[in-house]
Amino acid sequence: MKKNEVQLGAIHAAFSYLLWGLLPIYWKLLNRVEAKEILANRVFWSFVFMVFVLFFSKKLGLLVETLKGFARRKKQMYALITASILISINWFVYIWAVNNGHLIETSLGYYINPLVSILLGMLVLKEKLSIYQYISFGLATIGVLIITIAHGEFPWVAIVLALTFGVYGLVKKVINVESAVGLTLETLVVTPIAAIYMIVLFFTGSNSFLSAKLSTDLLLIGAGAATALPLLYFAKGAQKIPLSLLGFLQYIAPTITLLLGVFVYDEHFSKVQLLSFIFIWSALTIYSLSRTKLFAEIELKLRKEKTLS
Fold first, then answer.
1. What is this structure's pTM?
2. What is the mean pLDDT of residues 71-86?
3. Would you kindly state where each structural domain of the chain is located, as residue ranges?
4. Using 50, 70 and 90 to split pLDDT, how confident is the model at 113?
């Protein structure tokens, strides 16, 4: 792959994580709207936005072909439905957490996410873990336990976000479709439910969309683009750069979210949370370094020495 393509891929991926990191600011602008209505609008307008994207990129035919192909590939269809449900749960919990003062916990969830992927790979895909990955997972577990024991309650927001996105990534391996088409289909699955919910809110007079300020309406409509754009840039970038580089870049989003929570929205960052994050940051550092060539060579050498002994 050409150097220019890798650089462009890195820019696309970094930009997608930058957008994800700044997304809480967008949801904070809608903090007077209930999380369920924000989610319904996010799903509905994401689907509308993606249909326009496919139309202008001349991929609507590919969407139709993929839908027809599900008649022969039931497993892929069920995987798509599962992915749609998982990402919808993830979106809802994230929106609710942001607008209820849990930004720090959302950042914790996305710091943990790569380590959840390791665990899923081991349990589901029967992947063998390196000694560094075992150490990473152990340190992250200690970090979560520190918060749980100190606060007397399970950090459910962080764990739900990490698990839903981790399993979502696992399920996406089964859905071998073009990225823009895949996102359109994922939103298509839950769009009827979102549309029905929006209609019910409208007729019961409980709606914020089309009943509040024009700025609120525009923000709810814009939620579609705010959701889809980072995913599209991520898909562009992920195809052109090494997985190890992608692994480092993915920490941009939760780091920005953490900084927003502490310095912009004045969420309390206790010493206990700092200690927990230190364990998790250490885990992520070891995990990221374990994917480099140097650590791979060290591990290979250790395995050889163990075999010889």
1. 0.86
2. 89
3. 3-114+156-267
4. confident
